[in-house]
Amino acid sequence: MSANINLLLQSDKRSLGLQKKIKILNFVAAICLAGVLLTSLIIFLSIRIVNPESIKKEQEEVLKSISPFQDKQIKLFILNNRIENIYKILATRKDLSIITGSLLEKIPAQLSIDNLEIDGKSVIIAGQSTSLSVIGEFINNLIDMAREKDKIRSLTLNSLILDESRGVYSVSIKGEL
After folding, report:
1. What is the DSSP string of the chain?
2. What is the pLDDT of residue 146?
3. What does the pLDDT read at residue 9?
4. pTM to 2 decimals?
């Protein structure tokens, strides 16, 4: 190891001169800041002493010019809040038109629908046909939708009735959405 290593800075005349200049500049900056502060305080107090009502008049004029906009701002805030809440409700709601459209596509042409009830959780379909194979095709279509979890999660066959006097089969099916 070398014994000649000195980690302390040598203070010479030049560095001492720079430090004095920095101290002087800091002192001048503090005096300028205090001067600006004192000048602005004197100007403010002189305005208050010379014309104390001008500030209040100006404040009242500004408030009068703003007051018509406050009602509009309140109305706009309420409308935006309502629109945001409606959007949240619509985002959670199921689109029943899409569900209805996909169900109507699965109905064979020979099947007449007597009743179609759709709410947020279930669908009930009642229909009639002269052919049992048409009703079977309709039930198979709905079963395929339930297997694929396409709009319908589960199916229940409520009734399958034959009206012998008219020769018509009636079916009622409930599906969980």
Report:
1. --TT---SPPP-HHHHHHHHHHHHHHHHHHHHHHHHHHHHHHHHHHHHHH-HHHHHHHHHHHHHHHHHHHHHHHHHHHHHHHHHHHHHHHHHS--HHHHHHHHHHTS-TTPEEEEEEE-SSEEEEEEEES-HHHHHHHHHHHHHHHHTTSS-SEEEEEEEEEETTTTEEEEEEEEE-
2. 85
3. 57
4. 0.49
Mean pLDDT of all residues in the chain?
85
User: How far, in Å, CA of 142 to CA of 152, rounded?
Assistant: 8
| Token duo for residue 169 | 């089969």
Rounded CA separation 42/96 (Å): 73
| Predicted confidence band of residue 101 (pLDDT cuts 50, 70, 90) | confident
Query: What is the rounded distance in angstroms from the CA atom of residue 167 to the CA atom of residue 70?
Result: 72
Q: What is the pLDDT of residues 54-77, one digit of tens each?
A: 777 888 888 888 877 888 888 899
Cβ pair 130, 167 in contact under 8 A: yes
Please give the Cα distance from 135 to 128 (Å, whole number): 8
In the chain, the largest separation of any two C-alpha atoms, in whole Å, equals 125
Percent of the chain with pLDDT strictly greater than 70: 93
Note the pLDDT of residue 22: 93
Angle between helices 13-50 and 52-92 (to 10 degrees): 100
